Amino acid sequence: MTNTLHRFGAPETLQDDYIVFAIAARGINDADAPAKLREFLRLALKHHPINFGNALKGGLYRASESLTPFAHWRRKDAVDPEEVVKSIDTCSVVAAVFDQPADLEAFLVDLRKADLGISINISSLTDEARACCQRAGITRHSVSFSLGFHGDLNLLPDRHVLELSTMCGHGMVSHNLAKKMTDLVREGRRTPRQAAICMARFCTCGVFNPSRAVRILEEARVGR
Amino acid sequence: MEIDQHKCVACSNCVPICPMGAIYIDPARNRATVNLDECVECFTCHRGMSKEHLNPTLVRTIRGFLKLLRVRFEPEPDVCPTDALAPQDITWPRIVRRAFSDPLVPHESTGVHGRGTEEVKTNDVTGRVSQGEAGFTIEFGRPGVGVWFRDIEKMTRALATLPIAFEKKNPVFSLMSDPATGTIREDILNEKVLSAILELKTPLEHVPQILQVVEEVAPTLETIVSIGVSTRCDAQGGNLLESLLKSEGYVVYRGKTNLGLGRRSATATT
Fold first, then answer.
1. Are B182 and B153 in contact (CB under 8 A)?
2. How many CB pairs under 8 A join A and B?
3. How far, in Å, CA of B148 to CA of B216, rounded?
């Protein structure tokens, strides 16, 4: 989940962005991992995640192999959450995204009690994560800091586009798609929610944060 | 990736989807076309776009009629109406592109999907990085810029001269022909990928030296370099790395926190 490490934005724009993910280490604790990963997601579902996914099979929002033109008027936003849970049939990385620290904290309490025995990480503002851990009775083991982007920064797009596209660190949400969605919102041809869900469908891990995307698109619409 | 020229209706929906900007409408044929030199085989277009299976002739006729009337046709932006995206068979060395760019393809060297690295995510059970050490993830091509292996090699060669240890369970390391000098095998140097991560470890006191070299080399590359640094926390959850980074002038506020809830299973083989 290095794909969540370098989400672009100032600290005040990241306060509704918490990704919790579970991963088993190869050859160390991956033998019975699928059942534990399914349990991880079932626990997460109790605490109002705004997105979640199985990195190998897709997230809550995903593309369809067989749309018809009628789908343009009655397209489903998300798949059944249980479909995502049941899709975990091999060792994978699963993640859940929260936009409220209280939900994160309650989930951490449940995780501690469940004692799954696989590695759990939070990708977020590090001070917020540490505080949530402490309130949940957990002392962090290790920490990894993002030092941001270096080199020829002229290669990067503008702030709003970068805030949107970096929410899939695998690069599946292209800068051009984020720009197109921003323009569609500004022109009144899509709502921020519609644009956010469209981008979320490209993030195969389910770590794209639709709530944050809606907020960014609202700001971009009025040129803030 | 290729686009079936018989099926494509030049709706251009796939054009902005491509992270590398490698898809364009060829004005001579009026069909979407892939610049294979820039395509990194990430499969974003093929996997990410929803598919309809409409008759191409019918769709072209309707689009042509609407165009004559100057009527704006506004389809869903993430749909290929005729399922025209066609994966091609790829062989070595081009297959490296897909291994590094498509997050659903596992790396042979590590068995891990995505960029193929576990880094600090499993540090609670692997002990890769200890207290007093720093683990670096130096990522090339991110966000959405892409990188040629010839550029990655410039950095690996520079870093190989420093007091570091490259992580061996890492896809970039597995492609080095001479890790002692940071040389990458020659036959992939002209392959482009969406992103690749180099991992290394060093004692904390060498962190400023590593960062200085990365900062010096990064502007000479035709890509972006993203830096991540990790460490093992003490019994109270504190660490020396954060203050060290701040003293070097870095603004540090976002990252990953390993909760330490993992444990080795009784059947562990490594």
1. yes
2. 337
3. 18
Q: State how many domains chain B has.
A: 2
Please report residues of A whose CB lies closer than 8 A to that of B79.
67
Of B42, B78, B215, the CB nearest to A198: B78
- The Cα–Cα gap between B17 and B84 comes to 14
Same domain, B123 and B162: yes
pLDDT above 90 (res A36): yes
State which residue of chain B sits closest to A91, comparing Cα positions: B112
- Closest CA in chain B for residue A61: B48
Tell me the shortest Cα–Cα distance from B65 to chain A, in angstroms: 18
Q: Are residues B76 and B111 in the same domain?
A: no
- Is A71 part of the contact surface with chain B (CB cutoff 8 Å)? yes
Amino acid, single-letter form, for residue A140? R
CB-nearest partner of A56 from B21, B75, B113: B113
From first to last of its 270 residues, what are the pLDDT tens digits of chain B? 999 999 999 999 999 999 999 999 999 999 999 999 999 999 999 999 999 999 999 999 999 998 899 887 777 899 999 999 999 999 999 999 999 999 988 766 555 665 667 778 999 999 999 999 999 999 999 999 999 999 999 999 999 999 999 999 899 999 999 999 999 999 999 999 999 999 999 999 999 999 999 999 999 999 999 999 999 999 999 999 999 999 999 999 999 999 999 998 777 666
**Reported ipTM exceeds the 0.90 cut:** yes
A70 DSSP 8-state letter: T
The verdict on a CB contact (< 8 Å) between A140 and B125 is no
**Contact in structure between B104 and B113 (CB atoms under 8 Å):** yes
Residue B198 domain boundaries: 106-247
Find, in chain A, the residue whose alpha carbon is nearest to that of B211. A147
Number of structural domains, chain A? Answer: 1
**Contact between B258 and A166 using a beta-carbon 8 Å cutoff:** no
* Best residue in A16, A67, A94, A144 for a mutation probing chain B (most B CBs within 10 Å): A144
* Pair B165, B45 in one domain: no
Helical spans, DSSP H, in chain B: 44-48, 56-68, 95-101, 123-126, 149-159, 171-174, 207-217, 241-247
- Provide the CATH number for the domain around residue B60: 3.30.70
Neighbours of A70 (CB within 10 A): 8
Using alpha carbons only, give the angle A57, A63, A66 rounded to the nearest 5 degrees.
110
Domain-located, residue B100? no
Provide the residue range defining the domain that includes A212. 2-146+154-221
Which chain B residues are within 8 Å of A147, Cβ to Cβ?
211, 226-229, 245, 250, 252
